[in-house]
Design a protein that fits this description.
This protein is of the alpha/beta class. It folds into three domains: 130 residues, no CATH class; 116 residues, Rossmann fold (3-Layer(aba) Sandwich), CATH 3.40.50.720; 332 residues, NAD(P)-binding Rossmann-like Domain (Rossmann fold). It is built from 21 helices and 21 strands. It has a nine-stranded mixed sheet with strand order 9-8-7-10-11-12-17-21-20, sandwiched between helices. A six-stranded mixed sheet has the order 3-4-2-1-5-6, with helices on both faces. InterPro entries: NAD(P)-bd_dom_sf, Polysac_CapD-like, Polysaccharide_Synthase-Rel. Pfam families: CoA_binding_3, Polysacc_synt_2. This is Polysaccharide biosynthesis protein CapD.
Length: 631
Amino acid sequence: MNPLLDRLRSRTAAFSHDLLMIPVAWLAAYWLRFNLGRIPPEFVDSAFNSLPWVLVIQGTVFWMFGLYRGVWRFASLPDLVRIVKAAVAGTVLVVVTLFILNRTELIPRSVPVLFLGLQVILLAGPRLLYRWMKDHRLNLSSGQRVLIVGAGRAGEMLVRDMLRDASRSYFPVGFVDDKPRRQGGEVHGVPVIGRTAAIPELVAREDIDLLMLAVPSATAKEMRRLVELCEGTGRPFRTVPELRNLMTGQVSISQLRPVSIEDLLGRDPVSLDWEGIRAGLSARAVLVTGAGGSIGSELVRQIAAALPSRLILVDNGEYNLYRIEMELVERYPSLCFTRYLLDVADAAGLDAVFAAERPQIIFHAAAYKHVPMLEDQIRAAVRNNVVGTRVVAEAASRWACERFVLISTDKAVHPANVMGATKRVAEAICQALDQESACRYITVRFGNVLGSAGSVVPLFSRQIEHGGPVTVTHPDIERFFMTIPEACQLIMQAAVIGDGGEIFVLDMGEPVKIRYLAEQMIRLSGREPGEEISIHYIGLRPGEKLYEELFYDSEDLVATRHPKIRVAKGNGGLIAAAPEQGVAALEQAAAADEHAAMVSILRAMLPEWHPEPRVETLSTEAVQDRRNADA
């Protein structure tokens, strides 16, 4: 049928119902006034004589107050408020009109009050009953039996969405929640049947088919606990997005998604001084090197949102640069930006870019970072990580830039590999330049980011897709992790609060064992580690350490005005030779491709640089012993 006719039919039926309720309420008010007994004839005549006026007035008021905009199927509190307002306004008009006509003769004073109350009951009652009947059809139990974790706002919206679903794909059996005040309660008729610790028992007892995690504000630690409980049931489970990703604040079944590794390893949402960040970046020309990489591209996205006057992208990867260019064109059509396909070690090319663009703020994200690969590619590491940093940093000083932000790594602390050694030299270059330049040089040091190019997460994902095995270098190896957006937000925050010369250390939380990461990713794929997909321990790779550090023991971490950013104060990891001389010698050795000379110069600059001995692959028994010790 035509939707317009359907709508008109619905309104006509609702209006007809309300018109019928008016005389029922009017006459019932007289009957109640006389204690449900016989009504004197003169009062009966008065009631019927007044009824046409009551019908016209109340019917008009009902229509004017919009009682027929809403649909009975979704009757709610706003509809009840409209009914009360219409009943009050109509009753007042009825009393005034009848007073003008006949001084309300033979109309007891209690009748209008009773009439008002009866109207609200007779109009609101059927609407709410209709909705309840629709929300609790008898065929509801035919869908999947669902246990909802979290009886808060998100859980309430999920249940409401299930009850409205015409296909009845899901049957909400109950909630679990740890808040004492919610125990024994109900949400839309669905009971809270226990605490989260009882999930395995309740799943078995209630024959649950699916678990829904409706806790968007849960921390990573809480999510890990809940996921472990859900995994123990052997039933599938889904989660709602995090609060920061719920743009509308509404939750529906369509937004449910599998639990991701970011849910388990991510942290509490970062609170930033966005006004300060925008004030520091807006209306300024900002240059980002490595703009097509994992960190660089996310920096570009977030800087673009801060409305710089101009954004300059530099990257030596053609495809990556093209990809971020197309994204900016689509997402920020009004943004003024330019892009340069350029190697950061190309001094002449960089100087031309600075002369043409005159950037004010530099984010230096260009770096080679793959630890095992760089162990036998020292020339590339030196050219990109050391020479490239010097070229860009000196250009920033020469062209009177305001700030230069170097993105460093935890591998620069007690470096055990070429990558860490070259990044530690890059830090020293910036600290030395800060002493002699008007430009403020700021270093930001942090650990691994989830999902970045070359990280273990995409590697494990590919291995799991192919059925395994998943390769982990060592059962005890652990790393710090944070998400790429969080890292970039904190980098921008550090860039704004820095005065120059600081090494900012981002709060990475607790380190995570790579073994745990692999096991959880296998479980989240719906399979069991060690049974359906095996984990092979292949031994540490060249230059790889078991544990990473974010600062030296001799460095003191000093709080800043942001709780997740601290400053490393002290003389940790001193460069033995003057940075300028060492970097010049490295550059000459790299130009001549003298591998031994580069190693020798780096070791002279960094006496502490000595790779850890390679750890051989452990036996299955040794791995099990370590698992038992952890447990």
